[in-house]
Amino acid sequence: MKEKPAGLKSGLVSYGDPEFSLFLRKSFIKSAGYSDDALDRPIVGITNTYSGYNGCHRTVPELVEAVKRGVMLAGALPIDFPTISMHESFSHPTSMFLRNLMAIDVEEMIRAQPMDAVVLIGGCDKTVPALLMGAASAGVPAILEVTGPMMTGSHRGERLAACTDCRRQWARFRAGEIDREEIDAVSGRLAPTAGTCGVMGTASTMALAAEALGMMLPGGATIPAVQSERLVHAEETGRRAAALASEGVPPARIMTRESVENALRVVHAVGGSTNALVHLTAVAGRLGIEIDLDAFDRIGRETPMLVDLKPSGTKYMEDLHRAGGLATVLREIRGLLNLDCETIDGRTLGQVLDAAPAPWQQDVVHQASDPVFAGGAVRVLRGNLAPRGALIKQSAASRELLEHRGRAVVFESLEDMDRRLDSPELEVSDDDVLVLKNAGPVGAPGMPEAGYIPIPKKLAARGVKDMVRLSDARMSGTAFGTIVLHVTPEAAVGGPLALVRDGDVIRLATAEGRLELEVDEAELARRRDEWRPPEHPGAERGYKKLFLEQVLQADEGCDFAFLKPGPTADSKPGGGVRD
Ligand code: FES
Question: Model confidence at 342, in pLDDT bands (50, 70, 90)?
Fold first, then answer.
């Protein structure tokens, strides 16, 4: 059998003469000063996600250098290449709108350029899922290195880190508890070092999920971005990538149904971000693995939430690292894990856990017998308002609001909410349910993290800290509140959420997993006849057109229909409602 071309000989550009293609390729790359010896080695590509806009990735250049060192120590040739980089606050209209674009970029650049393995460097929320999605589809052996979490800072003796504290301090400012001068001072202290958000937000959750998935060397999820240990881990990742280049282990051998289940379990055990479900659904979907919401709910009910980190708890990622990182969590839920899953370092998850350092006294990861939250940190809700599901992170909600009936106060869109939320004329009381429509995958578009609807100013000023809030949007993993998210199908494609009007009664029954709109069917049918889809100015061309035509609903990971491995009977691009 003819051997598959490797190293510089793989994926030659078509000039009709392969030898000429290789000659030309070598001639050009020699302009970068490579010797023939270097060019004859296996190649490890490295995604360089540095961007001046992305403070979470400020350390990527030194990580790239450390990875290169590891690759070269193992005798292969490292070559880094740029990919799209996205920071949450610098991705208009929302980074979720761009996640699939980054995934396409990653997939196609891995495919286009010669490499026998690839090191994926990412960190900020959407970058890790985009890297894993792209790598899963490209099929080249891949290993992940995250930038790592930021360290905490302090303000007037109080520990701070992005971004639970960002929201909490901003809520204090809105309520008039602190003045402009103080909130300005706080803004300089919330992100005191490079690295990803320091709490159990989406970046931390995805890092831990990726390590549990087996795509990262042990311990990598929690090492702070600015510690020397992070560079040692990156060097080791480079060394391992060189071995993967020879071993040829494809991502599909690591990311399996069983390892995805481990990752979902970890999301529950760490009290992770609801966003992780959307992202893991998209990553798994690239390999033909479907995630069933009911299975996710069951896994949640079986899995105790153990990690005392904000927003559900009190501590920060650097504390989790000091407590032993993911291994300390996995040890507590060992009996629930698929331990035979192969990890990227060549051992099974069970072998990795057996080799982990012995536990020590710590107060961040609770024992399974004494959890932070007994089970179901994230609960799936269904009902006539969310036939294809909705989520509530009950571990980060007010217990007394988890069972609630209230009158809907409806905002038709983000713009409508911006305009009226703080108006003194808004008729609202703290028993009401704030409803935001048209903020889903198609509606916004891009399903922004707008589910954390601020408490209307006049209620905030009276000391109201939480209310039931409901939308088809997502929520930052760093947010706290009784917030129902990902209502599916979304309003913009005609889901029942589109039919909710001011004054309707909504029933949230978290223990039962129900979300009901208490309006009779005849009235809903009448409203359905009157409903018209929202318009999308500027969607005649370009990426926005592609996005609106192809994006799937939240329960399918918001991937593009054409990026899934094969036609799926149920997937309707453009957010079509599935019966
Ligand atoms: Fe980058 Fe939070 S903004 S991880």
Answer: very high
User: 3-state class of 133 per DSSP?
Assistant: helix
- Verify whether ligand 1 is closer than 6 Å to residue 197 (CB atom): yes
Q: Where residue 466 sits, what CATH number does that domain have?
A: 3.50.30.80
How far apart are the CA of 513 and the centre of ligand 1, in A?
30
Cβ(88) to ligand 1 under 6 A? yes
Q: What percent of the chain has pLDDT over 70?
A: 97
**Overall domain count for the chain:** 2
Domain carrying residue 391: 379-530
In a domain, 27, yes or no: yes
Model pLDDT for residues 157-206, shown as the tens digit of each residue: 999 999 888 988 998 998 889 999 999 999 999 999 999 999 999 999 99
Q: What residue's CA is closest to ligand 1, atom 1? A: 124
Last residue of one domain, picked from the residues 512, 530, 548: 530
C-beta of 56 in contact with ligand 1 (< 6 A): yes
Q: How far apart are the first and last CA of the chain?
A: 48
58 lines ligand 1 (CB under 6 A): no
**What torsion do the CA atoms of 407, 413, 415, 419 make, to the nearest 10 degrees?**
-20
The secondary structure of the chain in percent helix, strand, coil, rounded to multiples of 5, reads 40, 15, 45
Separation of 418 CA from ligand 1 center, angstroms? 24
Which of 50, 51, 56 has most ligand 1 atoms within 8 Å of CB, for mutation?
56
Residue range 529-544: mean pLDDT, rounded? 94
Q: By the 8 A CB rule, do 337 and 349 touch? A: yes
Ligand 1: nearest atom to the Cα of 163: 2
DSSP 364: S
Does pTM surpass 0.90? yes
Polymer length in residues for the chain: 579
Q: For residue 578, is pLDDT > 70? A: no
Burial zone of 353 (CB within 10 Å; 0-12 exposed, 13-18 middle, 19+ buried): middle
Per-position b or e across 373-383, b if 16+ CB within 10 A of its CB:
bebbbbbbbbb
Is 425 inside any structural domain?
yes
Q: Which of 27-31, 100-104, 534-538 has the lowest mean pLDDT?
A: 534-538
How far is ligand 1, taken at its centre, from the CA of residue 174, in Å? 23
Q: 183 C-alpha to center of ligand 1: Å?
A: 20
- Closest Cα to atom 2 of ligand 1: 197
The alpha carbon of 319 and the centre of ligand 1 are apart by a number of angstroms equal to 18
Q: Which of 50, 86, 96, 124 to mutate to test the pocket of ligand 1 (most atoms within 8 A of CB)?
A: 124
**Over 90: is that where the pLDDT of 211 sits?**
yes
CA-nearest residue for atom 3, ligand 1, is 88
Ligand 1 contacts CB of residue 196 (under 6 A): yes
pLDDT in tens, 459-504: 998 999 999 999 999 988 777 899 999 999 999 999 999 999 999 9
Residue 303 lies in a domain: no
Does some domain include residue 35? Answer: yes
Q: Is-contact 371 268, C-beta < 8 A?
A: no
* Bridge-based pairing state of the strands 433-436 and 403-411: parallel
Q: What angle do CA 175, 200, 193 make, to 5 degrees?
A: 80
Domain boundary among 488, 513, 530: 530
